[in-house]
């Protein structure tokens, strides 16, 4: 087991700058998830750690060793690929044993390690089969088995669950988490699915356009996103945004647009001071909205028109429009509203977010 | 259907009027679709083959209808020293060229499978020997092997490798070597391009996974690439062996079977006997003698391909 340090790493492909100076310190035993849309550089970063892509600039360390010039085999890592990359002409046993054979382990040791891994992953009965005779979930397990038999310093996962159907994905996600709790091997996991990132990661790294947007524990990203991008990317349904202008109406700061005029919460009044007269973005998560019952102050509510009500059983998602912005509110399942109905929504001022109109960075109290 | 299940009074059943549509019958359609192929194969393969068979059991010559002589032509071949040489030549020619074509073709395919500048252009360029009509390119080779005026001897002489001009096509062994070289030159592109196509079906992930698993480049080739390429390799070999075994053009143009019958293959010897000398039936016997050997090779290879594919 080992730490992984990624220091100011760049990747250029001809004239495309795929990774633009990524730095990340991964602690021993940590499970770090790189998440972002396709083309954000997360897979390239992972492949540079694996040694499958050359590093244009910067350094990668595994433990205390700079591995920039080391071939993949000498980095003591194991990787699980998106499409599993199982050797189709070999049995499950041979697939799992291949890495050990290449490293000249003796036969008895190989046998016991494969048996142990197969036992952990529940694929004991399939060892003699060929990969194509297995279901997607079983193949995934074999790919995991191939990684764990070697007992490497670091696990690298490249979207390992994206080829599975939704139900199996949830199940394998839990198993992966259990596996990590059991083995404790340092892991870097790449996904574009923010739910996977939130549920699996000790820490989550949100990337976009080759840059790290924010690094933090899942709830930190959720509660205090560093910018509008992270705020919109993490959480499902996504955070609601409304373009507003900050103004001072004499009694305090307000955020206004054609459809709403709300009071800036107290804890944000000071940092938003310099923004008076400038555009900003108001952000509020669906679960921080509720139907106003009249008990809340007027300036913590705004009017909206119901477009669709999605009944989920445990909650109702109201798709509403508020002037130029579309929003989603998660409300109590007992609420009865009809499409087209005008309602008032109240927001939780402590959980309101504001982002600079230009830089889109979060304004923090 | 929903309509059938309902009991509403508006229920209607529309029955197609029975028309005479013979092609709706799959059996008739199958025969109709097979017909063009059957006519073509029958006319141009089965019929000539049967005529060849009939010819080989007569003593027909040009201008003489001939009579049934049973297996006399084949018995004569069994004691014909030139025919013995032909069998040996053909097997040797096929074996050596196939080994080299496979080796060089695989090497080229592996190189072409990498990413480099002008990749598409180079891949197309590689195919040239295969595209140029064989007779034309073989004539060019014949000039290059000319002992007095050729570029080959000139180069060897100028670089000091030889002092006396080599009579490439005048010596039995060198003539065999020459036609082997030309056949390899012509056949490598087919191997290279077919194997390249095979290589491209192998996911690069597998090689990456093997690299991470600790396999060195040669081990990756031996444990991953080669076994996955084997089915394609076997099919390419099958085609190549059949073509090479029955090769005619290169030998006919380069040496005509000479010197002193040293480079005769089945096809050229059959041509010389049947058309050149006019002994039609004996020529037919020689070309038919190729058949059992080829059949054996094909059966063995097909069985092997099936085994590989079932794996």
What does this structure look like?
The complex is a heterodimer of chains A (365) and B (311). Chain A is an alpha+beta fold and 365 residues long. Chain A folds into two domains: 4-233, 3-Layer(aba) Sandwich (Rossmann fold), CATH 3.40.50.300; 240-363, OB fold (Dihydrolipoamide Acetyltransferase, E2P) (Beta Barrel), CATH 2.40.50. Chain A is built from nine helices and 21 strands. In chain A, the strands form four sheets. Chain A has a six-stranded mixed beta sheet with strand order 6-7-8-3-9-10, with helices on both faces. In chain A, strands 13-12-11-14-20-21 form a six-stranded antiparallel beta sheet. In chain A, strand 7 (154-158), helix 5 (166-183) and strand 8 form a beta-alpha-beta unit. Chain B has one domain: MetI-like (MetI-like fold). Helix content of chain B is 71%, strand content 0%. Chain B contains 14 helices and no strands. In chain B, helix 10 runs antiparallel to helix 11 and helix 11 packs antiparallel against helix 14 (280-310). The two termini of chain B are 44 Å apart. Classes of the chains: A alpha+beta (365), B mainly alpha (311). At the A-B interface, strand 6 and helix 2 of A face helix 10 and helix 11 of B.
CATH superfamily of chain B: MetI-like
Largest contact between protein chains? Answer: A-B, 22 and 18 residues
Low-pLDDT residue spans of chain B: 1-6
**Rg for CA atoms of chain A:** 25 Å
Number of domains in the coordinates of chain A? 2
Largest sheet of chain B: none
Q: Kindly report the oligomeric state of this protein.
A: heterodimer
- Identify the CATH class of the largest domain in chain A: Alpha Beta
| Average pLDDT score of chain A | 92
Distance between the termini of chain B: 44 Å
Q: What's the arrangement of strands in the largest beta sheet of chain A? A: 6-7-8-3-9-10
Find the CATH superfamily of the largest domain in chain A. P-loop containing nucleotide triphosphate hydrolases
């Amino acid at each position: 087991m080992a730490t992984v340090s990624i220091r100011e790493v760049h990747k250029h492909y001809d004239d495309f700058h795929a990774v633009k100076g990524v730095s990340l310190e991964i602690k021993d035993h940590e499970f770090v998830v790189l998440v972002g849309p396709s083309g954000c550089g997360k897979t390239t970063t992972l492949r540079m750690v694996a040694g499958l892509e050359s590093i244009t600039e910067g350094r990668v360390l595994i433990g205390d060793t700079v591995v920039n010039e080391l071939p993949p085999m000498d980095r003591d890592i194991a990787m699980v690929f998106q499409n599993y990359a199982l050797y189709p002409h070999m049995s499950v046993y041979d697939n799992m044993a291949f890495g050990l054979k290449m490293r000249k382990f003796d036969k008895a040791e190989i046998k016991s390690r494969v048996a142990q891994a197969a036992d952990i992953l529940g694929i004991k009965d399939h060892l003699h089969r060929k990969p194509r005779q297995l279901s997607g979930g079983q193949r995934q397990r074999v790919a995991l088995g191939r990684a764990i038999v070697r007992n490497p310093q670091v696990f690298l996962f490249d979207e390992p669950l994206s080829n599975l159907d939704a139900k199996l994905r949830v199940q394998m996600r839990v198993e992966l988490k259990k596996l990590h709790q059991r083995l404790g091997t340092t892991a870097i996991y790449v996904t574009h699915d923010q739910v996977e990132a939130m549920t699996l990661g000790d820490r989550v790294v949100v990337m976009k356009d080759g840059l790290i947007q924010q690094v933090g524990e899942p709830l930190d990203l959720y509660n205090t996103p560093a910018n509008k991008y992270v705020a919109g990317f993490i959480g499902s349904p996504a955070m609601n945004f409304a373009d507003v202008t900050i103004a001072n109406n004499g009694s305090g700061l307000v955020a206004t647009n054609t459809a709403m005029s709300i009071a800036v919460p107290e804890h944000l009044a000071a940092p938003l001071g310099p923004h008076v007269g400038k555009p900003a973005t108001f952000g509020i998560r669906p679960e921080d909205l509720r139907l106003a019952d009249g008990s809340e102050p007027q300036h913590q509510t705004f009017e909206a028109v119901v477009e669709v009500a999605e009944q989920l059983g445990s909650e109702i998602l109201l798709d509403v429009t508020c002037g130029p912005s579309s929003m989603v509110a998660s409300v109590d399942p007992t609420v009865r509203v009809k499409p087209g109905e005008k309602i008032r929504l109240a927001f939780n001022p402590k959980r309101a977010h504001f982002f600079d109109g230009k830089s889109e960075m979060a304004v923090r109290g | 259907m929903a309509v059938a299940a309902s009991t509403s009074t508006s229920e209607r059943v529309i029955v197609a009027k029975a028309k005479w549509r013979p092609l709706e019958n799959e059996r008739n359609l199958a025969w109709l679709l097979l017909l063009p192929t059957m006519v073509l194969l029958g006319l141009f393969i089965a019929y000539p083959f049967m005529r060849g068979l009939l010819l080989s059991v007569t003593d027909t010559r040009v201008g003489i209808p001939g009579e049934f002589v049973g297996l006399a032509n084949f018995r004569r071949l069994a004691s014909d020293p030139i025919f013995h040489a032909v069998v040996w030549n053909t097997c040797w020619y096929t074996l050596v060229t196939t080994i080299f074509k496979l080796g060089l073709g695989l090497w080229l395919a592996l190189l072409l499978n990498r990413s480099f500048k002008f990749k598409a252009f180079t891949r197309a360029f590689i195919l040239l020997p295969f595209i140029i009509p064989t007779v034309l390119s073989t004539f060019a080779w014949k000039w290059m092997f000319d002992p007095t005026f050729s570029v080959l001897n000139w180069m060897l002489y100028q670089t000091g490798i030889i002092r006396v001009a080599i009579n490439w096509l005048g010596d039995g062994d060198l003539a065999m070597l020459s036609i082997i070289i030309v056949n390899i030159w012509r056949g490598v592109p087919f191997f290279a391009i077919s194997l390249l196509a095979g290589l491209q079906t192998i996911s690069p992930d597998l090689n990456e996974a093997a690299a991470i698993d600790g396999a060195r480049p040669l081990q990756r080739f031996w444990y991953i690439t080669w076994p996955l390429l084997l089915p394609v390799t076997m099919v390419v070999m099958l085609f190549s062996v059949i073509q090479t075994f029955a090769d005619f053009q290169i030998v006919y143009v380069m040496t005509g079977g000479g010197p002193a019958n040293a480079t005769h293959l089945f096809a050229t010897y059959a041509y010389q006997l049947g058309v050149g000398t006019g002994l039609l039936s004996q020529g037919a016997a020689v070309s038919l003698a190729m058949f059992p050997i080829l059949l054996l090779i094909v059966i063995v290879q097909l069985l092997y391909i099936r085994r590989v594919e079932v794996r």
